[in-house]
Amino acid sequence: MSIDTLKNLVPDYAKDLKLNLGSLANEEELNDQQKWGTFMACALAGRNETVIREIAQEASQHLSESAMQAAKSAAAIMAMNNVYYRFAHIATSKDYMSMTAKLRMNVIANPGVDKVDFELWSLAVSAINGCGMCIDSHEKQLLDHGMTKSQVQASVRIAATIQAISAVMDGESAMNVEETLAQAA
Q1: Is 47 inside a domain boundary?
Q2: Is 150 inside any structural domain?
Q3: DSSP letter, residue 60
Q4: pLDDT tens digits for 164-181?
Q5: 93 Cβ partners below 8 Å, 6+ apart?
Q6: What is the 8-class DSSP label of residue 13?
Q7: What's the start-to-end Cα distance of the chain, in Å?
Q8: Which of 123, 134, 162, 168 is catalytic?
Q9: 45, part of any domain
Q10: Is residue 49 part of a domain?
Q11: Is 42 labeled as catalytic in the residue annotation?
């Protein structure tokens, strides 16, 4: 099981992350598609190769091909939208808020899965990327479509844990490169 592989790769100083990963893999607030789509979208947003590989292996056992593609699409479109809308929201000039983005976002209208699931994944990625405007927009859509605040929180707990594990894995990789360079010198 790839979640177990990933847990074994997390160093002991990050034991809380291991424990959180294990409990979130068994999270029952979300159905399997919502949960594993959130894991997949967040792994991609975290950008760590090992995390992406292990989560993709696990998620592929729980997601249809169309759901896997939609989770990837949520990560991709939010990588763009979170930058644009975070800029529009925090820029001193509020003129940008009233301007059309002029960026293609067709996947949002037709993600290939239930719109609520796609919104959930988009919210989780937006939490990782720190776009308050996008978080508010996706949360409103989710609540308007019957999701509970506990379900929203579950997706963000997954996002927080996967992002933290990605950061730890990046840090460990950087330290290993430094050790290798020191040994070669």
Answers
A1: yes
A2: yes
A3: T
A4: 999 999 999 988 765 665
A5: none
A6: G
A7: 39
A8: 134
A9: yes
A10: yes
A11: no
Per residue in 37-75, pLDDT (tens digit) is 999 999 999 999 999 999 999 999 999 999 999 999 999
Cα separation, 159 vs 35, in Å, equals 11
Q: Let me know: does 40 contact 68? Beta carbons within 8 Å.
A: yes
DSSP string, 111-168: -SS-HHHHHHHHHHHHHHHT-HHHHHHHHHHHHHTT--HHHHHHHHHHHHHHHHHHHH
| Packed helices 115-129 and 65-90: angle between N→C axes, nearest 10 degrees | 50
Q: Which two tokens stand for residue 108?
A: 């949002």
How many domains, in total, are found in the chain? 1
**Closest to 67 measured CA to CA, from 116, 34, 45, 25:** 34
Two structure tokens written together for 121: 């994944």
Residues 6+ away with beta carbon under 8 Å from 69: 112
Choose, from 21, 120, 131, 159, the residue flagged as catalytic. 131
What is the CATH classification number for the domain harbouring 36? 1.20.1290.10
* Domain, as residue range, for 6: 2-94+106-175
Crossing angle (nearest 10°) for helices 49-59 and 149-184: 140
